[in-house]
Structures are given as structure tokens and as C-alpha cells.
Write a structure and sequence with these properties.
Subunit structure: Heterodimer of a large membrane-associated beta subunit and a small pyruvoyl-containing alpha subunit.
Low-confidence stretches: none
Number of strands: 16
Structural class: alpha+beta
Order of helices and strands: EHHEEEEEEHEEEEEEEEE
Helix content: 10-25%
Shape: elongated
Distance between the termini: 31 Å
Strand order of the largest sheet: 11-7-8-9-13-5-4-15
Enzyme class: lyase
CATH architecture of the largest domain: Distorted Sandwich
Pathway: Phospholipid metabolism; phosphatidylethanolamine biosynthesis; phosphatidylethanolamine from CDP-diacylglycerol: step 2/2
CATH topology of the largest domain: Glucose Permease (Domain IIA)
Radius of gyration: 20 Å
Largest sheet: 8 strands, antiparallel
Subcellular location: Cell membrane
Mean pLDDT: 90
Keywords: Cell membrane, Decarboxylase, Lipid biosynthesis, Lipid metabolism, Lyase, Membrane, Phospholipid biosynthesis, Phospholipid metabolism, Pyruvate, Transmembrane, Transmembrane helix, Zymogen
CATH class of the largest domain: Mainly Beta
Length: about 220
């Protein structure tokens, strides 16, 4: 289990807060019950930040016919929808909600070339809001595989997660299961797939990024 690089600043700030709190308690000679409160609070803050930014190693089984899950979380949407930003036609949408307790690493669902990338500033509606996919801060990334099939993936910021990070750009060649980004403190990732894709997951199912097979393309 590794600690993700996106958490370095947050970890430093938490450690600084802990040192200041512990120093103040020692300097002013606080009551024993208050010292215990500060100890417990310090432990809680440290454990929480380590939990948020954990980055477990994953054994990725690549298959050009499958769509790997891009994030840890729970499937909250499986539906046919109109995708107007890039495809401008009907697509199968599969959405994964990432809670604050999930691993927040985002992974490529297929291997291929980044055919399109765009960052959209926006609102911070709760991730399960119907308009979060189009109104919230988000990125839209289209991957094109060797057979010419395209998958659009969208990182969506939520009410709590206001920091989207990505490591790819148009023209990059990427591998299935590799990390392409990170959403701090959770939120949501949407996939827009060809209508003839075979979906292997169900609403409410817990999924693992880079491991769970969303379907076949």
C-alpha cells in the first residue's frame, strides 16, 4: 500500500496542525481530559488523511475486448442517454460514485490514444445530482482503441471533491488500467460507451478500479 503523491500537501498540513495542537497542549499544561481529546483528534486526522490518499497496487489483467472499471466505488447509473459534447448521439452511460472512503485513483478503461480532452470549470453539486455530469467542474476524455472504437470518460467534481487532477493530454497513448488521474476526496466518474456494448455490472454494485470488468466493447 502506497501513499499517493496528490496527498503530500494535505499530509504536511495535517502533520503541521497536529504538531501545533500538541505543542499548545504541552505549553499551557491543559487538563488531562483535554490532552486525551487532542491525542484522539490528532490520531483521527492522521488516519483520515492516510485513508483518503492510499494507493494500493493492482494486478491489471488487460484485454482489448473488455472495459475495465475506471474507479473504486458504486455503480449509480446505467442508462441510454444523449451525449452532446463529443459524440452528439445516443450512448450507454455507466456512472461510478466514489465516496470519501474509496480509493480515489482514476484508471484508463481501455488501451488506446487520447483523441479528445477538455477541462470544464463549473458548479459543485452533489455527485448524485442529475445535472452534475453537465454542470459541475469536470474533465471529458475520449480514448480510441486499435479497432477505432471510442469511449468517453468524465471526471466529475462534487460538493466535497473540488480538486480534479489528470495526467494525460490529447495524442497520448495509454494502457488499460494505468492511472490517468485523481479526484481528491471522492466524487464520480462517468463512462459513455457504444450502444452495442455488453454491460456486466448492475446498479448498486461495488466495483474496483482496474479490476472489475464494466463490460465488453
Amino acid at each position: 500500500m502506497k501513499f499517493h503523491k496528490e496527498g503530500y500537501v494535505s499530509l504536511f498540513l495535517v502533520l503541521l496542525i497536529i504538531v501545533i495542537l500538541q505543542g499548545l497542549v504541552a505549553y499551557f499544561g491543559a487538563a488531562e481530559w483535554f490532552r486525551w481529546f487532542i491525542h484522539i483528534l490528532s490520531a483521527f486526522l492522521l488516519i483520515t488523511i492516510l485513508q483518503f490518499f492510499r494507493s494500493p497496487s493492482r494486478d491489471i489483467q488487460r484485454d482489448e475486448k473488455t472495459i475495465l472499471c475506471p474507479a473504486d466505488g458504486k455503480v449509480v447509473v446505467i442508462e441510454e442517454t444523449q451525449e452532446n459534447e463529443y459524440f452528439k448521439d445516443k450512448r450507454l452511460q455507466v456512472s461510478i460514485f466514489m465516496s470519501p472512503t474509496n480509493v480515489h485513483v482514476n484508471r484508463n478503461p481501455i488501451s488506446g490514444v487520447v483523441n479528445y480532452f477538455k477541462y470544464h470549470p463549473g458548479k459543485y453539486l452533489v455527485a448524485w445530482h442529475p445535472k452534475s455530469s453537465t454542470d459541475n467542474e469536470r474533465t471529458s476524455i475520449v480514448l480510441k482503441d486499435a479497432q477505432g472504437k471510442e469511449v468517453l470518460m468524465r471526471q466529475i467534481a462534487g460538493a466535497m471533491a473540488r480538486r480534479i487532477v489528470w495526467y494525460i493530454k490529447e495524442g497520448d497513448r495509454v494502457e488499460q488500467g494505468e492511472e490517468f488521474g485523481f479526484i481528491k476526496f471522492g466524487s464520480r466518474v462517468d463512462l459513455f460507451l457504444p450502444l452495442d456494448s455488453q454491460i456486466n455490472v448492475n446498479i448498486g454494485q461495488k466495483v474496483i478500479g482496474g479490476k472489475t470488468i464494466i463490460g465488453k466493447i
